[in-house]
Design brief:
binds dinuclear copper ion, about 30% strand, about 25% helix, alpha+beta
Length: about 190
């Protein structure tokens, strides 16, 4: 084979490979566009069931998330609510008390940037976004203690941002909650 023919053959191989990759990249781009369109239409047609907003600039001054109202409460109708605030780089309260085997509604908001939390290996997991109230209800089947780290990168102190969650036996929780105060397990 002459030099010219060899060069021509290798050029054909290169062209074929480039064409193959062009198709693969084109397919990937097409797939991403389809995903964007489908998820966009899906969100537009089925928006989140509830959106609750709050003014992050005044939440420490008045309303539900003032410091004296944070922690866990037992309402007269038996509903347990744990309220907390996320900020760079801590949760308030630092230690959250919840009962074992009773539905607990978490209500959380952020003062500055996007945070999030997950309670140990349970399904309690949410983002916490300034300007919005994140809420979910879950039940902790076992008493014990969990770590609750922030799981959205929120700045240089992110990895040091965490709280604890104490799941108390139901009777112990009810005995403490009867007094009506905001419960937490923060050492005083
Ligand atoms: Cu707060 Cu990461």
């Amino acid at each position: 084979m002459s030099n010219g023919a060899a060069a021509h053959a290798s050029e054909l191989v290169a062209v074929a490979a480039e064409r193959r990759w062009a198709w693969i990249v084109g397919a990937i781009i097409a797939m991403i566009v389809v995903m964007m369109v489908v998820t966009g239409l899906h969100w537009a047609s089925m928006p989140p069931s509830r959106v609750e907003t709050i003014d992050a600039k005044t939440l420490h001054l008045r309303g539900e998330f003032v410091e004296s109202n944070l922690g866990t409460t037992l309402a007269p109708d038996g509903k347990v609510t744990a309220r907390l605030v996320a900020q760079q780089y801590s949760f308030v309260p630092q230690c959250i008390v919840v009962p074992e085997g009773m539905p607990v509604t978490f209500r959380a908001t952020a003062t500055d940037v996007i945070h999030g939390f997950v309670v140990g290996t349970t399904n309690a997991n949410t983002m916490v976004i300034p300007g919005f109230v994140a809420t979910f209800t879950t039940t902790f089947p076992k008493s014990g203690e969990h770590l609750m780290p922030c799981h959205e990168y929120c700045g240089t102190g992110h990895e040091a941002m965490w709280a604890r969650v104490q799941v108390l036996p139901r009777d112990e929780f009810l005995a403490r909650a009867r007094s009506g105060e905001r419960l937490s397990c923060v050492a005083r």
